[in-house]
Fold:
Amino acid sequence: MQQHDETEEGSADESTTGRPPISPLDPATGRAQELHDLLAGDEALTVVCHDNPDPDCLASALALSELAADAGIEDVVLCYGGDISHQQNRAFVNLLELDLEPFEPGLLSDRLVAFVDHSVPGENNDVPAETAIDVVIDHHPAESVEARFVDRREDAGATATILTEYVRALDLDLAGRLATALLFAIRRETLGFLRGVTAAEHEAAAVLHPYADAETLRRLASPPVTGATADALGTAIENREIRGAVCISHVGRTGERDALPQAADYLVELEGVGTAVVFGIVEDTIELSGRTTDSRVHIGEVLSDAFDDVGSAGGHREMSGGQVPLGLFADAATDERLVAFVEDIVTDRLVEGMNLPEDEADEG
Structure:
């Protein structure tokens, strides 16, 4: 880790670093050094991404691996559960040449274990619930978070923002893919600095921008969309129901899990709609994605209240997700019957939980 000479005021001289000074009293500096010291005491690290990782999770994992390397850890593994199926997530992995491995329990043995962008074993990951975690860095709501090092900030717009603070405080090299990954992750997580953004995201972007590759950012922003994803989006648009200012829709059975948040992002922008929830059957699970621009609605709490007794759901005020196992109903005679059953149950729970009109509104 590089060290800077300090000015009389106690901060690094901008003229020698080319970057704005960081106050030694900045809390991020202390937390970053604390994490660095913890990592320096070990030889191997497994960074566990949450299931179906997005750019925020992937960029944060990359940044933590760079921090671990700076602390002297040569054996760093980045792993994930589920699939990387969203076209933007696949482009992120390919263009930034991320080295990822599918999660397996053996990656938890005799190694430090870190979570980024999630925080609880067994929730949105395949890590056994009893596993001791060493590092947690996250910005999602959660309960019973335990680790040797925890930095969980629900007010942060992205986990990548927190990692940017650490990288900046420890003066790690941002050249190359690291700045590009972190900047794109912050942009994507905040929908272009429009959703859940704080001053910290703008400050992080200012630090990252001079080092990010503009062409890679452009390619990441507009990856090609598969025909299956386009079909799922079309199905969600066709199946939409408007109840008050809430749009509820489904994509039926699909292999395009990541089409659900894309559909929710689109439907919440419809005229007169402030909240959108899209669900679909993916293998043997009902997947849900929610979005809201209505300041009166906390969509994370809405999904949690509606589905936590039968699955797991939750998230931020403006964006959330959930999973409900189908159990015995997964063996329903036909997809048509199963989809109709799921549509009725999910819609009824949302209508009751949000106190919505019983009948679909007239959009005409």
